[in-house]
User: Fold this.
Amino acid sequence: MAAVDLGSSTVRLCVACIRGDEVEVVHYGERVSAGIRTSLVFNPQLTSSVVGDLVREAELALMVRISQVVVGLPRKDVVQLTASMKMERSASNEYISLEEIRDLRALALDTYPLPDPGKQGIYGVVAQSFEIDEGMTLREREVVGTLSSTLEGRFKVFVGRRQGITALDKIFNGLGIAVSKQYFLPDAVSRAVLNDVERNGGVALVDVGGGVTSVSIYQGGILRHYASIPFGGRAVTGDIETECAIPADLAEKIKVRFGACQPDKLGGLSEKVLQIRLTDPYMEIPVKYVSEIVDSRCREIVEAVLYYIEESGFSNSLRSGIVVTGGGAELTNYISLFKDMSGYKVRKGYPRRLFSSAVGKDVFSTSAAAVTGMVLCAKDDALLDCATESAQPEEAEPETVEVEVTEKTTSPEQDGRLFSPDEFGEKTEKPDSNETKKTTRTVKVPVTGTTERTGLLRLVWSTLGETALKVYDFINEGEDRR
Assistant:
């Protein structure tokens, strides 16, 4: 399985080998993203170049041909709507099957009227509950195996921009790669980060990405509410860049190395001063000042998260509190800030040990939660193999040119040396004592490149060819002396 996460700051590719229930990550790569803003691809050509580099790197490392991938959909501008569908069962004395549940979901989606079909597309659908005879309401895993003459399902439909789907198709079609499935990322991230106790007891999953911070509320094992905030880690970098008047790449490095919330909790680190030697005289930026900048933006994000938790109606049902994941979760004291401002218990969300890794610990970082979650979802969905073994390239025979070489042979007495034509694979009569004989033959010489100065073909001789040149030069010198 191969999965691609198109993040606002970083594009990630993960390839895993699946044997039964065992999943082993065999390749993990990442590149700085291009053409992506707030998780939405606005320039597919730039993004395609980044994705293509990652794919080629994986193919060379694994000696495979990647033909299919699973990919995550954008997280911004996603609205949630409600759909329902009711069906009369012809065989009421038969158990309700999982196939009937799937058919009911598909029917609800096929008949769902999008507000603006030209600009909107369905990103995902989650079953909320099912109702059978006598008004009994059950969850999906409870309704299978029941008896009823009717079956009614209620679903949450997540609708986003159609541009996001079109851009993904354009990117991977241009690379000759099929998209086997597009995943609504909150569900994929939860698969990697949350355990069953948290999903059932009630939890808010906060994914702090580069351009978007998303909030997903789970209760009873079901995704109940989703919202997105249109800023994340890049906003923090932008604040440092603006306030300190430094380049964006340097601001990012300072954020990663020294960025921290709650400046009052920095201890001795707050006394340190960064010297930026880009100008003369050089700049001095106190670490505490950087922390104040970071803290201000992070508090804004936390306040927005708490607003959407309250809006969901599940604020009093989060027995498992808040789980914070994504690259932004690595900021120092961010988890502590969430705890102090929310009053919930809060933990950092790393990918769970549901797979092994042959590529190091990077796949278990918070920033890899989305891409590893998609691999796990693809495994559960039993998708087809995404890669095939590629044959070792055959070595091409070197290009050659034919060169005529004229050789002169002399008597054994001349200069006290003898150069026999037999050395060149030719059978000729031994010359008389004072006779000089010319022999012309054709030699094939490999071509390895061009000279930098003239552009003429550079001829590289084999051992036989080198010997022929020495003979030719030596005899010419002897002829001149004569």
Remarks:
- The first strand starts at residue 2 and ends at 6.
- Confidence is low (pLDDT under 50) at residues 411-431, 448-469.
- Residues 215 and 305 are 7 Å apart (CA to CA).
